[in-house]
Amino acid sequence: MGERFLFDDLKWSVSREAALKRLRVSEDDMEDFDEVFAKTLALIRPVYYVGVERVTENDGDGATIGSEHFVSRVVSVHLQNAGEVYPYVGTSGRAAYEYAISLGDDLMRFWADQICEMALKSVAVDFIRRMRELSHAEQLSSLNPGSVIDWPISQQKPLFDLLGNVYEKTGILLERSFLMRPVKSGSGILYAGGKHFESCSLCPKENCPNRRAPFDKDKFEREYLK
How is 89-106 classified by DSSP, letter by letter? Predict the structure, then answer.
């Protein structure tokens, strides 16, 4: 097993003004919103857990990283010339998630959930900055299970197995459905080299608030089929 790093001091921010604009809070709901906003922010504890591994085998249909094999043509292609790779998981924190799901009002629960999402999006910027420092790479790309056409969400399991002790380190629980709890969590494999890649370009999910690149419906056939 390669080295493991826990980042629990990353910088992030969620402004009240940005949250109000995103959530379109009415004047009548402002007092309730301010209470939820303050409590959620006080409970958010972002954390990322990262491994440093090497690709030990790449057969064109998948890649073995450390002790785990990942089945995906896309993963194989992008890690063809990779040296070190960085499997990771990250979350806005379990305490804020538990607070959100404890709220009896659907609208208030939605507010708390969205504030957690804004925090995760904010902290991801500092996480990538820190990973550039760690990897000495100017640019990093991310492969994300469930966001790539031929790399299903079930591949979360070997990713969690590869990292080890994910729940103990982060509070992230992988369910039988392969969804993560807290829901405002992310996972993937960072790597350096080659043309910058965004998993979003191969993800057909519509109306995704976190989309970083447009879906290219012909990209998989054009660039990845043998």
Answer: EEES-HHHHHHHHH-SSH
Q: Which 3 state secondary structure label does DSSP give 95?
A: helix
Q: How many residues does the chain have?
A: 226
DSSP state of 151: B
Any idea which of 22-36, 124-138, 208-222 has the lowest mean pLDDT? 208-222
Inter-CA distances, 55 with 25, 76, 169, 192, Å: 48, 10, 24, 13
Instruction: Return all residues near 45 (Cβ < 8 A) that are at least 6 apart.
Output: 8, 92, 93, 94, 95, 96
Angular region, 98: left φ>0, alpha ψ -120 to 50, beta rest: alpha
pLDDT for 218 = 78
> Where do the structural domains in the chain lie, given as residue ranges?
4-223
| Confidence band for 226, pLDDT divided at 50, 70 and 90 | low
pTM of this prediction?
0.92
Architecture label for domain 4-223: 3-Layer(aba) Sandwich (3.40)
pLDDT digits 0-9 by tens, 84-95: 999 999 999 999
User: Does residue 216 sit in helix, strand or coil?
Assistant: coil
> What percent of the chain has pLDDT above 70?
98
Q: Tokens 């419906």 belong to which residue? A: 217
